[in-house]
Structure formats: C-alpha cells, structure tokens
Write a structure and sequence with these properties.
Number of strands: 8
CATH class of the domain at 4-203: Alpha Beta
Pfam family, one: Glycos_transf_2
InterPro entries: Glyco_trans_2-like (IPR001173), Glycosyltransf_2 (IPR050834), Nucleotide-diphossugar_trans (IPR029044)
Mean pLDDT: 85
Protein name: Glycosyltransferase 2-like domain-containing protein
Helix content: 40-55%
Number of helices: 11
Domain Glycosyltransferase 2-like: 9-156
Radius of gyration: 19 Å
CATH architecture of the domain at 4-203: Alpha-Beta Complex
Low-confidence stretches: 222-230
Strand order of the largest sheet: 3-2-1-4-7-6-8-5
Strand content: 15-25%
CATH topology of the domain at 4-203: Spore Coat Polysaccharide Biosynthesis Protein SpsA, Chain A
Order of helices and strands: HEHEHEHEEHEEHHEHHHH
Shape: globular
Distance between the termini: 38 Å
C-alpha cells in the first residue's frame, strides 16, 4: 500500500449550523490522526451560509458544496468522487474519531480482497440512555458492532470499488455494504478497536425515532446476505429470552421494556423489508442524481 499520508481522504458531510461545535470536533479529530490523511474534505449539503462560515473559520481542510440532491448520501458522494487517493474514509459531523481510528482501519487493506473496513461506533449520550433500548439495537442510535457490520460514519473504502458500484445510493450505508461485497467481489473487515464516538441528542432517542430507523434498516436490507439473517436469528431471540427471563425473576420493568423493544424493532424492520422487496421488483437500485 502507498504511503499512509497519501493513501486516504477523509470526507465529512455537514448540513446545519446547529451542529457547528460537533463539526469542529469532528474535523479536529480527523486532522489529529496518528496516520495523517492526505486531505480532509467537508461537504456542505445545500447550506450556503454554513459553506462560507466553514471556509472562513476552519483552516487546513477542503470545503465543497454538494453536487447532488439534498441528503447525506449526496454529500458523501460529492466528497468521495472528489478524492484522488486510493482509499476514502467517512466521518459524520456529529462524530469524534479516536487518534488511532484511521491507522487501524488502513491496516487490512494490505489484503487486496478487502474493499472496506468498519469502525466500532459507540453512542455518546447527551442525555440519559433510554431504559427500553437493549444493546442489540444500539446501532439504531448510530452505533456499530460486529454483528451489524460497517456504518457510514467511520468506514474506509477502496475508491475504485466504491466508484464501481456508483457510491452511496438511496439505500444508504447498508446498501453500499452489500453492493461492494457482491458487485465489486470483495469483503469487509470490522475493527471494533477503531473507535468513533457518535453524539446522540436526547431529542433523537424517542421510541418513534427508533421504529423509523428499524424500518429504514429493513428497507436497505432486502436479501439474506445483507440483512445478516444468520447473526440476527441468533442474537435477537437471545436478547428477547434474556430480558423476559430477567423480568420473570422480578429484576425490574426495564427488562420488560427491552423485550418489547426487540419485538417492535423486528416488526418494523420486517415491514421495511417486505415493502422494499415489493418495490425492488419494479425498479433497480437507484443511483443518486446530480442536483440541477
């Protein structure tokens, strides 16, 4: 692999001035890596005032405006297609990467079959973690575990394989994970020690938000390979049984709530999968169109 400083571009999408302080932290963490990136690119999602503020106040980075229709996928694609390095890393504007994050994710690319690597993303609660949220569904709060695979915030991909599949599409990170595995003929490696912390505002930890994210996940995972059925069929029944057993032993209402959350989350994801499987027969994967 080429020299680490020249190997990777870090792309950070941004859309709102309300996240200014977390964006500053994200950029600082990207620029403080032990394996220095060739370029840190912040892509602004259709917010001219934020674009000019970043250009004025944040030094040492490249600032671009999204060339696609509004949305995180389009902003990420703008930065990724701008990159000239062989590898592309992604953070979000509400994440902070540990100093060793990038060096750990770059190491597996010595194997030419690896097309992407995923970080361990841990929620950083600004309020209190919801009592009803079991560990198996932390991904719905922006976390990532080995059982769920790579999330967009924190992943590194090979540029050629990313471009081969058209980048991020309407299915988001889960769809990219599947398409790069299948169409580009490679494999992913998950490195839980490559840590990224994702800030979770209290307003996004409602049960309704949880159900919407499960539904969206279901719509992005219509095939067994991408849904990771083998893993889910082991972990989710175990989570249900564990919490029901604890509730029956009188260990508190929290376990009843978490058991109900498992059932509700599976139902929401299942509904999304059914709807996507029907609509997918009518239309192929939708690549994002540039903004007019």
């Amino acid at each position: 692999m080429e020299n680490q400083r020249a190997a990777v571009t870090v792309v950070i999408p941004a859309h709102s001035a309300e996240r200014w302080h977390t964006l500053v932290r994200a950029v600082a963490s990207a620029r403080s890596q032990t394996a220095a990136a060739a370029e840190v690119v912040v892509v602004v999602d259709h917010n001219p005032r934020l674009f000019h503020r970043i250009r004025r106040d944040l030094a040492g980075i490249t600032v671009l405006e999204s060339e696609y229709l509004p949305g995180m996928a389009g902003a990420r694609n703008t930065g990724a297609f701008h990159a000239e390095t062989s590898l592309i890393a992604f953070l979000d504007d509400d994440t902070v990467a540990d100093p060793e994050w990038l060096s750990r994710l770059l190491a597996p690319f010595g194997d030419p079959d690896v097309v992407g690597t995923g970080a361990g993303v841990t929620p950083e609660w600004t309020g209190t973690r919801p009592r009803w949220l079991p560990d198996e569904f932390l991904w719905a709060a922006g976390g990532a575990t080995a059982t769920r695979g790579a999330r967009p915030a924190g992943m590194v991909v090979r540029r050629d394989a990313f471009r081969q599949v058209g980048g991020f599409g309407t299915g988001g990170g889960t769809s990219l994970y599947a398409r790069m595995t299948d169409l580009a003929g490679g494999r992913w490696t998950f490195l839980p020690d490559a840590l990224v912390r994702h800030q979770v505002p209290a307003r996004t930890t409602t049960f309704g938000t949880f159900l919407r994210r499960c539904y969206t996940e279901g719509r992005g995972t219509i095939r067994p390979a991408t849904l990771r059925f083998a893993t889910d069929l082991r972990t989710l029944p175990r989570a249900l049984a564990r919490n029901l057993s604890a509730a029956l032993r009188g260990e508190g209402a929290t376990h009843v709530l978490r058991a109900g959350t498992v059932l509700a989350g599976v139902a929401a994801a299942g509904l999304g999968t059914v709807i996507e499987s029907v609509t997918a027969r009518r239309a192929p994967h939708h690549i994002l169109e540039p903004a007019r």
